[in-house]
Amino acid sequence: MADPSPQTPDPARIEAFRRLLRASRHVVFFTGAGISTESGIPDFRSPGGVWSRMQPIQFHEFVGSVEKRNEAWRRRFDNRDGWVGAQPNAGHLAIASLIRSGAAAAVITQNVDNLHQASGVPDDKVIELHGNATYATCLDCRQRYELAEIEREFIETATVGPCKRCGGIIKSATISFGQQMPAIPMQRAHDETMQSDLFIVLGSSLSVFPAAEFPLRARQKGAALVIVNRDPTAMDDLADVVIHAGIGSTMQQVLKNEAVSG
Fold first, then answer.
1. What is the pTM of this model?
2. By residue range, what is the domain housing residue 57?
3. Which of 84, 113, 183, 230 has the largest CB neighbor count within 10 A?
4. Are residues 158 and 32 in the same domain?
């Protein structure tokens, strides 16, 4: 897991970031686990992260085994992934202020924690590539189920029964390993990327594909690219500005003294 203490952003790079932000007309954010770790949510993939402590349950395992489904729900309600109770941080709030003011168009996120919505970004401006862990859906008819309802059933019966509408399997509304990426969010992400003139990556290692293709597409079509991440990424050499520092502290510096209304 990354060092939780933020590094100090370089003032020259902050100013370069600020100039790009001022000059751009269609700004798109792309966020990964690094923005959520600043809210206390553990990273899944890093050494010491969630997947180093417990193996992920593959989609075919979840669908094919009641035992695996019960284990998945047990993990969810034990909060083993650490997202329950997390609150938006300065990075989330900065993105929300820019989107609400019209200075940014949308946020594409790899995260499933709902913190962008909780920070004030309108639902239709958040594009979730990997789904959302704060509710469940039927895999067949897409009926939505609230987790409080599912948890009550699980506590009482030690399992989660089939969908009341169609009899299908109910699953957390996240994209599991081996599950097909959602077509509509992927298309929306592509459309926003191709319209962008500034693409800002916050807290992503840019190592998980196909999601990591979006900054590449943005750069290839001529958009400026900014990457803010504690550690180097494979795309740093492509970016106009690279800042290895905390996201919240970086965004606070970028927006300092800027006229951004919420």
1. 0.90
2. 44-82+131-174
3. 113
4. no
End-to-end CA distance of the chain: 33
182 prior amide bond cis, ω within 30: no
DSSP string, 42-94: PPSSSTTSHHHHSPPPPHHHHHH-HHHHHHHHHHHHTTTT--TT----HHHHH
Residue 130 annotated in active site: yes
The helix/strand count (H/E) of the chain reads as 11, 9
Q: What tens digit of pLDDT does each residue of 114-162 get? A: 999 999 999 999 999 999 999 999 999 999 999 999 999 999 999 999 9
- Annotated catalytic residue within 60, 130, 190, 244: 130
Q: What is the pLDDT of residues 229-242, one digit of tens each?
A: 999 999 999 999 99
Are 11 and 92 in the same domain?
yes
